[in-house]
Amino acid sequence: MKVNKCTLVKGHAKSQKWRDVRGKRCRRPISSSDLKSTPVMATMIKEHQGCVKKKPSVKRLKNKAKAVCDSKSEFKKSGTQANGSSVLTMDDESDDSQDWKEYSQSIHGNGVETSGDMADACPGRLEGDALHYCTERDDQQNHAVLVMQKDQTLCFRGKCFLTCLYGRVEVMGFTIEEGQQSYPLFSPASHCPLTIRALTNSDDTRDDRREAAAILRKYLTPESRKKLLKRVMSHSSVILLEPMETPLTHFLSSFTDLSEFQKCSCTGCTQTHKRSTFDSAIAYSAHLSFIGDMDGCAVILVCGTKNVGKSTFIRILINTLLNHTTSVDYLEGDLGQTEFTPPGCLSLSTVTEPLLGPPFTHQRTPEHMIYYGQSSCESDLDRYLESLKSLWRRRSQSRETPIIMNTMGWVKGFGFQLLVDMIRFFPVSHVVQLSHSGTTQCPALTPEFLRTAHGCQTQPPAQTAIDEFTESHIPPRSYNHFIVQSDFQGVGRQGTAKHQRTNEHRELSLLAYLSQLQCPDPGPVRPLHSLTPYQVPHTAVALGVIHCEVVPTHMLYAVNASLVGLCCLAEKVTSRGGPVLLSQAPICPCVGFGVLRGIDMVQGLYFLVTPVDPSILCKVNCLLLGAISLPSCILTTQPGLEGETPYVTTNYSFDLTGAGKLRVFKGLTRPSQIGM
C-alpha cells in the first residue's frame, strides 16, 4: 500500500485541545518505531512530540500501569486510577518467589534470558508449534494465557474477551495496556479475521519475570505457570483470553445458516492464513501521519470505490484517534454498509469505545439519525444531501471533537458529484481518497480540482480570464488531500464466501438490531410471534412509504409484516377518523425501528414490536416504510407454531411474468452515448 499526499494546504491553526493529546491517559509519544514512517510522517511525528509537553487537557490512559492481581494475594490496592487500573504495592514475598529463583540464574540485565529457550522468540505470526509453546490453558477456569514478544501477531477466528495482564498489545489500531478493562473481540467468518500484535513496553526498568510471575499466579497452575515463565523476556506482553457469550451471538446461533457464529470461542480460536485486518492495519497505519497535524475539530472525509477497504480504514482511524482523545464523532453517509445502525440510515454518532469487530457487533443508538429507507441514494439525490445537512446542523458547532465522514462506494457519475457537493457543504479539513491497482477510479479530489468541478447541487465559482491576474482571484478551498493505494489480496472484489456479500452484511446488521428484542438473561430465543406488541391507534401516527409510490388503498397492505422506521414529525398529526397517510417522504429524526406485525382495521390499531424504550416511543408520530426488508429467517424460523407460518407462503410461482425481482442493468449504454 502506498500513499501520495497530493496537497497540503493548512486552513487554520491547531486548537490547544487537540495538541494536548497526552493528558490523563498518558500514552507514550508516537515514535517512528510504531508506524512505518514516510517523509511526511517524520515531520508530523516531530511536531507531535513537541506538543505533548504542554499541559494536558484530555483524559488519557495511564502510561505505567501496574500488574492486575487479586487484592487478597501478595498485591494490594493503594489507589484507583483512570480506566479501571490501580496502583499496587507488594506486601511480602509469595510462593512464586521459588519459581523466580529457579530462573534468576539465567537472567541477565533487564529480565533478558540468554538460554536456548528464547532462541526462537522472534517477530512474526504465532501459529502451529510456536503458538502451542507460548500458550497455557486452564480448563477449570476456562481461559487461556498467552505470552507474546514484541511485534509477534496472533491472527484468529472466533470471539473472546481480551485482557492485557502485562505489557501492551494492539488490535485494529487501538492500544490495550495492562490495568485496563477487558475488551470484546469479534472475528467472525463473515469478515476479515482480527489480529493481535504485541508492542514494546514503555518502561525499560521493570522486572519482567518477577512481575509476570506474580500476575500468572492468579490464572494458572504452578506447572503451567513455570512453563510459561520461560517465555517471558524483556518487552514481553501477557494476555488473557476468556470465552464470551452475548445475547447477539446467542440470537444469531438460533438460525441454522448462522450457527457458526456461536461455535467459536476464545479457547477455540484458530490462527488463519487468510487476509487479516492486521495486514490492512499495518499498511494503513503508515498513512495516518496526518493525525499528528490535526486540530481538535478536524473533519476527515473518507471516500473510495466499493470493496477498497473504507470501512476497515475508518475503524482503524477511529481506534487510533481514541488512543489520543476521549471521543470521536462519526457521520454516516454510506446507506448500504452502515457502521452503527441498520442499513438505509444516515446518522451522527459519538464513539467512545474502540471498534474491535464488524459493524453488526457494535450496533448502537446514534445521537441523531434519519431513515432514508434505501441502500442507495440514486433515486433521490436531493433528499440524501438535505438529510446529511440536517444531521450536520444538529451537531454542536462548539464541539472540538474530530469527526469522520463515511461515504458510499459510488464514485462515478452522480456519485462523484455528490462527493464534490459534500466537500463544499461541510468544513472538510482532510480528504482521504482510497483506490487500488495504481489508479484512483475517479479524479483526485484536490482543492485545485474543486475549483472547476460540478456537483449535483453546487457549481464551481464563476471566474473570468482576467481574475487569474487580479486580487479578486478566489483561492482554492483549503484542506489536506491524501491518496491511499490499497494493495491487499482481493481488493476491488466482493467476497464470494458465505456471509461475505454486501446484502448478507446488511442482514446481519438488521438481525443484530432485532436481537435487542430478546431478554438479556440466558434462555431460549423467543420467535417473532411470541413477543408482545404495542397497540398504536391509527389516528396517533402518520404512515408513509419513502422508496416508491403506493396508491393509498394499498398502503396498509404494503406496511403489514414489514420493517418500519419510528420517526418524529415536527408537525402534529391530525386525523379525520382513519389512517393518516403521507404523500411525500419527510426528512425527520428517526429514533429506531420496529416490525409492524399486524393491523386491526375494526379497532383501528397497529401492532408494533420494537426494542425502543417506551419513554422515547411516546414521541413517535410517524411510521416510514422503506426498501429495507426483514431477513427471511426472521419469518421462516418461528418454532412452536400450529398450522401455517404467518406471513410466509409456498403457494407462489416464479414462472409467472413479473413474479420475480425486477433487475436493473446499469451497464447498458444510453442511446445518447452510442458512437461517442
TrEMBL record:
Record has Secreted as a keyword: no
NOL9 N-terminal domain residues: 135-264
GO cellular component, one term: nucleolus
Domain Clp1 P-loop: 304-437
Compartments in which it is found: Nucleus, Nucleolus
GO terms classed as biological process: cleavage in ITS2 between 5.8S rRNA and LSU-rRNA of tricistronic rRNA transcript (SSU-rRNA, 5.8S rRNA, LSU-rRNA)
Entry keyword annotation includes tRNA processing: no
Biased composition (Polar residues): 78-88
Main location (coarse class): nucleus
Membrane-crossing segments per the record: none
Keywords, ordered alphabetically: ATP-binding, Kinase, Nucleotide-binding, Nucleus, rRNA processing, Transferase
Similarity annotation: Belongs to the Clp1 family. NOL9/GRC3 subfamily.
Name used for this protein in its record: Polynucleotide 5'-hydroxyl-kinase NOL9
